[in-house]
Amino acid sequence: MSDIVKVLRQVVLEAVNAQKPTSVVYGTVISTAPLKVQVDQKLILERENLKLTRAVMDYEVDMTVDHSTENRAGGSGEAAFASHNHDYKGRKKFLIHNGLVVGDRVTMIRANGGQQYIIIDKEVV
Predict the structure, then answer these.
(1) What residue numbers bound the domain in which 114 lies?
(2) φ and ψ at 109, to 5 degrees?
(3) What is the pLDDT of residue 10?
(4) Exposure of 54 by Cβ count < 10 A (0-12 exposed, 13-18 middle, 19+ buried)?
(5) How far apart are the C-alpha atoms of 85 and 107, rounded to whole Å?
(6) What pTM does this model have?
(7) Do residues 48 and 76 share a domain?
(8) What are phi and psi of 7, to 5 degrees?
(9) Does residue 68 sit in the same domain as residue 43?
(10) Same domain? 72 vs 125
């Protein structure tokens, strides 16, 4: 390969790397209020540089349920407190607890340009 081709390749690689194309980055949550994620010893990301997905947030969902509660008895021995259950039906709201906590290891995508990071998931321990 000629020297000019090597030089051109190097220039192109440096230009691409200077644009900071999208890449996967890992970090650790060091604060939740305000949100801060440490990527390495020098880089700590603040809330304004972070976007969150539902995989790392508390959020509500509507679900349709159709089942009965488990049998449960009272303690007095009276007939009104005998073992019984109840139907549980309809559309209900449920809170999904996925919020970040200090110490969570997170997987992020660094957006083109390197200023914004999308936290896509957290490591399951």
Answers:
(1) 22-58+97-125
(2) -110, 125
(3) 82
(4) exposed
(5) 44
(6) 0.69
(7) no
(8) -65, -45
(9) no
(10) no
Q: Is the pLDDT of residue 55 over 80?
A: yes
Residue 108 and residue 49 share a domain: yes
- What total number of domains does the chain contain? 2
- In sequence order, what are the residues at sequence separation of 6 or more whose Cβ sits closer than 8 angstroms to the Cβ of residue 120? 53, 55, 56, 107, 108, 109
Measured between alpha carbons, how far is residue 42 from residues 10, 54, 84, 115 in Å? 27, 28, 60, 15
Residues in the chain, how many?
125
Both 120 and 101 in one domain: the answer is yes
Task: Report the alpha-carbon distance of residue 17 to residue 11 in Å, rounded.
Answer: 10
C-alpha of 49 from chain center: 15
pLDDT on residue 81: 66
Split at pLDDT 50, 70, 90, the class of 88 is confident
